[in-house]
Amino acid sequence: MITTPAREDIRAFAASVRAQLDDLPADEIDDLLDGLEADLSDQATEADDDFELPDATTYAAELRAAAGLPERSDAIAATRKSLAQQVREGWRELGAILTANPAGAWMLDLLRSLRPVWWLVRGFVWYLMAYFVMLVLVPSAPSGGLLGAVFFVSGNPLTWVILLGAVLLSVQWGRGRWLPRPWVRVLRTVMSVGAVLALPVLALAISTALTQALTRDSYIPDASYVPGLSVDGQRVRNIFAFDAEGNPLPAVQLFDQDGTPLTTVGRGMGQQPYDPYFYGGGGPVPVPYTAPGASDAWNIYPLREIPADAVSWDDGDDVDDVAKAKPTTFPFLRVQPIPTDAVPSPEPSPTAPVATPSPDAEAAAP
User: Fold this and answer.
1) What phi, psi does 153 have (nearest 5°)?
2) Are 237 and 286 in contact (CB under 8 A)?
3) Residue among 16, 30, 23 at smallest CA distance from 69
4) In sequence order, which ranges of the chain are alpha helices (DSSP H)?
5) Helices (H), ranges, 114-226
6) How many helices (H) and strands (E) does the chain have?
7) How does pLDDT run across 180-232, given as a tens digit for each residue?
8) Contact in structure between 53 and 9 (CB atoms under 8 Å)
9) Does residue 121 or residue 311 have the better pLDDT?
10) Which of 113, 285, 345, 348 is most buried when burial is the number of CB atoms within 10 A of its CB?
């Protein structure tokens, strides 16, 4: 028996009829359409130019009636469609609605012209995702953080390979190339959706990283506030002065460049006769010099201190504790003297009057 090859229009007709029967089980569809293409091909050969294909919908309805099957149910047919088919159909319907509107048609045309840009962006997003996956799988891989992924400051050649490969794959998939299997097309769709979802997060992260990098040089971190005088963040409790010969000075008044008393206590101390920063801290507590009718002097050094073993650490006994204050022992009996050439000559203050003898006084001098 010789079978006539089916023509292209007959194949398309058979596919349309099969689509009209897609609410039926697959084995029933095969039974109804068994030999359909071959029969139609034979009829087309015999009728030649007079052959015409019937309407696919009408033909499918006649097959149902002849087989005693119920009419097509669109609801059931919709449930049998795959998710990908439903998404494609919904996308086509949305495109048709937008195309019917002039503004929508203009927007679609603009988006189509920007597709190559999206291919590049999508490839870059894939690269960032692959870069972070690589860092997770290979923790020892050199990394410069997010900016390292963007600007390759890590100096890792593998990042170039990943970037170029991701961009090339995105462009080829965007052109409809390198899609040999249906599952690859599904993978492209999944990866594209993932890129769309990840793009806002990555854009925000890149923007934050760039802002931090640009402001890093001019940014001065706020150090924790330390009251009074401090060195490298540590409070200065007391000060000890030595003269040019290296001998200790038991009472020295210190002032800053503006003439303000230089103290080791924080501002806002109130009328407390002790340093509240140290009181309760477990160590010696410095107290100021006092004199009847005068304010407490906190800039005369070394300050007297309440020994740690004499402090009760009870707010109600602070006055008694201050009475236990003693002169502070110098840490050194003597220090290295200053070289003679390095000792500056004292100069009077420019605001202080300097007495100069008058000519008459000089003449009267013996």
Assistant:
1) -70, -15
2) yes
3) 23
4) 8-20, 26-32, 36-47, 56-67, 74-80, 83-100, 102-113, 115-137, 145-151, 157-174, 182-215, 318-322, 359-364
5) 115-137, 145-151, 157-174, 182-215
6) 13, 8
7) 888 888 899 899 999 999 999 888 877 877 777 676 555 555 555 556 677 77
8) yes
9) 121
10) 285
